[in-house]
Amino acid sequence: MFATGLFARRTGLVVVAVLVGVWMAPGAAVAGDFYLRGGLGLGRSGDVIFMDKDCSSTAPAALYGCGTGGDGAPYRSRGDFGAVAALELGLGYTVAPARFEVLVEYRPRIEFEGRANFLAPERRQEVSADLSSVSGMLAAFVDFAGLGLPRLGPFDPFIGAGLGAVRNRIGETRMTFPATTTIVPDGSRTDLAWMVTAGVSMPLDERVSLDIAWRYTHLGEVRTRRGAGRVVWRDGSREPLPLDLAPTWARLASHEARLSLRYAF
Questions:
Q1: pLDDT greater at residue 16 or residue 237
Q2: 10 Å Cβ neighbour count for 71?
Q3: In the chain, % of residues over pLDDT 90
Q4: pLDDT band at 32 (very low <50, low <70, confident <90, very high)
Q5: Which residue in 99, 102, 103, 140 is deepest, having the highest Cβ count within 10 Å?
Q6: Residue 198, domain extent
Q7: Cα–Cα distance between 42 and 84 in angstroms, integer?
Q8: Measured in whole angstroms, how far is the alpha carbon of residue 226 from the centre of its chain?
């Protein structure tokens, strides 16, 4: 995951440098067209690890703590966000060969499914939570054809990058053990978001184009808040045990395939 993030950040810096060069180049076009773009994305997150922000915290109490689990790794929950679906809407302006866009994305339901490692690996310790995410970015794209580079048949390749902010929200986390369920408070966080992308565009008529792209999107951190959690005995043999829990966190990022339509005004 670290190597992927480092590659994506370097790619983003290259894209931004190209865009700045295009913008400042002598003779760059000053006239352009506004456009509206709407699309869908579907991707996967890869490995996701929830851990304490401070494993040594005692008041409030760290959920995981600083010990070593049954699998030999530090206490944590490890899993993935499964299939991540995204809706996107962009308002842009074309100044050939570049396009500049205000981009809003909504991920209405992201499901974390994983396992804790407090117990031996074969014992029950499932972890689940539902998330949602809304982000806004300023994005820029370079169309290769506008730079005089060859097309790929009917397709015009492009690259792009974006930077902005995101609001991530996570509902209650449920940790199911052989006899008990631990419930962790929900939480929300505003963080830095960025993306890099590469794809191809195909004109459908004079005003409408189809964009097909790969995108790596980094949506900052997901955090549970400090608050009241509880341990519940599922057989009802004991009263729930209240817990004052410290925050936990994980990174939210995904590789996605994108399909969108662009309409020039």
A1: 237
A2: 14
A3: 78
A4: low
A5: 99
A6: 2-264
A7: 6
A8: 23
More confident residue, 16 or 261: 261
Q: Is 53 buried (19+), middle (13-18) or exposed (0-12) by CB count in 10 A? A: middle
Dihedral, CA atoms, 55, 47, 85, 167, nearest 10 degrees? 20
3-state secondary structure of 119: coil
Domains in the chain: how many in total? 1
Q: How many Cα atoms sit within 13 Å of 233 on the Cβ side?
A: 7
Neighbours of 153 (CB within 10 A): 8
Model's pTM, two decimal places?
A: 0.84
Q: How confident is residue 13, by pLDDT bands cut at 50, 70 and 90?
A: low
E-state strands within the chain? 33-44, 48-52, 77-80, 83-95, 98-116, 126-143, 156-170, 173-176, 180-184, 187-203, 208-223, 227-233, 241-245, 248-264
Output the domain CATH number for residue 247.
Answer: 2.40.160.20
